[in-house]
């Protein structure tokens, strides 16, 4: 299993439930513990409800 993958799955789950703050926190943890970048992430459409959130914009700008 790739480091941080569980963090990404939790971020997705929280995004799908509409819990933006928790999703952002788990995305931060994913980026801290994973060498993957946002552009290589799958299931990006699961985060559509966060796309206007400033923290999300900053996290996914890399």
Topology of this protein?
Blueprint: H1 5-17, H2 20-33, H3 54-59
Helix pairs in contact: 1-2
Concise summary:
The protein has 62 residues and is an all-alpha fold.
Would you kindly provide a written description of the structure presented here, covering whatever features stand out?
With 62 residues, this protein is mostly helical. The chain has one domain. The protein is 53% helix and 0% strand. Helix 1 (5-17) runs antiparallel to helix 2 (20-33). It is globular and about 25 Å long. The model has no long low-confidence stretch (mean pLDDT 87).
- Characterize the main sheet: none
Inertia-based shape? globular
Low-confidence stretches: none
Domain count, please report it. Answer: 1
Order of SSEs = HHH
Give the class from helix and strand content and strand pairing: mainly alpha
Rg is 10 Å
Query: Considering DSSP H and I runs of 4 or more, what fraction of the residues is helical?
Result: 40-55%
Number of strands: 0
Fraction of residues in β-strands = under 5%
Keywords:
single chain; 62 residues; mainly alpha; 3 helices; 53% helix; 0% strand
């Amino acid at each position: 299993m790739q480091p941080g993958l569980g963090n990404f799955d939790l971020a997705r789950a929280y995004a799908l439930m509409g819990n933006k703050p928790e999703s952002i926190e788990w995305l931060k943890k994913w980026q801290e513990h994973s060498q993957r970048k946002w552009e290589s992430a799958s299931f990006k459409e699961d985060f559509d409800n966060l796309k206007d959130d400033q923290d999300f914009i900053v996290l996914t700008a890399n």
